[in-house]
Amino acid sequence: MNKARVYQMYRTLAQPAPLFGALTIVAFWIGLAYLLSADRTKAIDAAIQDGNRMVRLIDDHAAQLIRSIDRTLLLLRQAYEENPEQFNLNQWAERASVISGVTTEVGMIDENLYLRARTGYSGPPIYLGDREHLQAALKSNHGELIITKPLIMRATGKRAIQLSRRLRKPDGSFGGTIAIQIDPNLIEEFYRTLDLAPNDNIILRGLDGEVRAYHGFSPTASVEGGMPKNIAKALAESPIGFFWGAGAIDGINRLIFYRVVEGLPLVVLHGKTLKNTLAGYERQRLIYTAAVSVLTLLVLLAVAFSIHRQLSLERANMRFDWAIENMLQGLCMFDANGRLLVSNRRYGEMYQLPPELLQMGTRFHEIIAFRAKQGISPIDPVAIEALANPEISFQLSGTSSRVNELADGRSVCVTRSPMAGGGWVATHEDITEQMRAEQDRVAMERRLVQSQKLEAVGQLTGGIAHDFNNLLLVIIGNLDLLKDTTPAGSSEFDLIESSLTAALTGSELSSGLLAFSRQHAFKPETIDIKAVISDQVRLLKRAMGGKVTLQETATDNSCTVMVDVAQLRCALTNLAVNARDAMPDGGEITIRTYNTRLTEQDLANEDKVKPGDYVVMEVADSGAGISPENLNRIFEPFFTTKDVGKGTGLGLSMVYGFVTEMKGTIKVASEVGKGTSFSLYFPAAAQLQEVAAPGLVPSESPASLSKRELVLVVDDDPMVRKAVVAQITSLGYGVVEASSPAEALDVVARNEPLDLVFSDIVMPGAIDGIELARLVRQRRPDLKVLLTSGYPDLKAARSSEHSYVQWDILKKPYRRPDLKQALENALGANEAKADALVAATH
User: Fold this and answer.
1) What is the pLDDT of residues 368-399, one digit of tens each?
2) Distance in Å from the first CA to the final CA of the chain
3) How far apart are CA 403 and CA 416, in angstroms?
4) d(Cα 311, Cα 322) in Å, to the nearest integer?
5) Are 196 and 215 in contact (CB under 8 A)?
6) DSSP secondary structure string, 300-336?
């Protein structure tokens, strides 16, 4: 702390208000100390009076009790000495009503120190000569009252105090003793009725120091022998009095009152702790102290308020300067004449202003002119007006905010607020990073919405494709049956072939929908993509027409990928057809194939694609291009820019679903009037497999009826079930129908001679096809099972269950040859397993 600061504090405290407040506080506390001293003296005097009354009460109780019992002892001794031979202890004890109140028993010990008689006892004599009080009675010649310390009675095991007197024979010799027992617990019960405060105590001691009865005293202390030194010292000075002393057991400081019982070898003591003695005083002291503390606080507050008023301006200035200099935003304040009042360091740094322009009084138009030389042209009305008329008086009507673009590319938000009396205060905040973050957030939200939209539509299209597959199954199955019964070359045969072609085309459309919704069971194969593309391009050239040229270019290197070949052909066909339709006046389509490597930076906007080596299939055209507003929607199902009837809006959606499922990505570049380029990125693979070119499936003639295996067909759709039954029957198999899994289980339970259960998977109710297959396997392990579904990926979806068995699944829609092959495989595979099992047992 520097000298100037010390001097300022001294000057502040030396003012009249702090000095008067200090004197007032001192007077308060001196008066409080005097008042508390007087109250403490009064509290101690009152405690002494209460203590003296208490020991007198205890003294009276002990004296009355002991003397009453002693009179009984004297009466019994007199009766004994008048006629020792005829003396009956029990009769005399009953006549004298000895057993009452605190007395418990009366006993008589003979001259040989044997217990000869006792109320309520008729047993043999008990030798008690080892008792100290009996030895004392034996040696005494005066017959004085003997009061023992608490003893454990041998006959009863109870704790008791004995009061006894010596008996004399007619010749004056020792004739034994007669004793009355007192229960010390009953004496202590009286002490407990006196409602002592916590840690206060009452003790009845003999002058020998032994404790006879107590309350609020440690039981351990009650069996310690000898008189405590502080009590012995007090008794030596006076038989009645009080003194301060600490407990030998608990160390608590007490005000101890004592009084010797007149005529008896007993002293009563009452200990009152200092805490209890001053309890009332302490409560009063807390009240007084609280009151004076409140008064002191009020005085301090008044003094503090006075000092605060003197220092507030300086502190406000210091805080204001510190806050302005440490703001993250630039700050400046101008008066009504446009002169600088306040500015901070950040304001100068933000606009690189020289120190002379940051001095108080600098004109606003000078700063604007300097910023204009830096390339920051004034765009807000205040700055423009300041340059045009430097002498203008500024009166802003309200708060305004504007973003300035600096020459270095930074964006600064300037917010001006008017001040009373004219002028304004402005903050300058660099919002460059905030704007970038906001742009990134908007882009991310757009991608998220697009992804959610595609996911929702994908779920819808998957359900549509499933139902469509069931319809196609009926159509294709019935057309296959008609084809077998129609002569080749007839007009009816051609119509059937045309219908089959249309139905199979619909099947491809359904597969595309499932591909988009990711509910299609893809069959990836490792291939050289160039061979498949070349083969497909050869087929596509015929469909392009005379105005469109289709060219293929490929790298010399191997382009090995793992993809579903059929879906790859479908995707290439969709892209080529879309490119052809975008060039109604003709043009050129180029299909390129090459290898590339994608880094994390290349995939910044892709969440599920990993960096690495990729094979690219690029389809580019020279057509009309895609407008920016449509470019973000091209992968939405059913979105199309073609005329009604010329497009379904599903082609690019199917391509998107296929590429995504292959763990690849699509990049689209388009410019209106110049054309569009689609680049499909597939992860590069290491190994190559031979892939056979697709061919037409020949019609299957009906099988021989020599084999009559019985097939249970389970499907909830009557139309589908009827078509399936007709196809299986035409293949030479016997058929039993069931419209639900429950009905199928009833058929199985009847032990029909079934060879195979052919069931749909997706059916209503608690049991689906997979659960039906599991139950059939449990009940008839020898019965074969073949499942079918328009959701062929259900097999993969359920394969993670521990109880699931890998069932054979036939994809809908299927041709009759596919059905025949699946039935033969299911029946033959199980027969092979059975043969192997038989061979193993032999």
Assistant:
1) 888 777 767 676 777 777 776 777 777 777 78
2) 106
3) 12
4) 17
5) yes
6) HHHHHHHHHHHHHHHHHHHHHHHHHHT-SSEEEEE-T
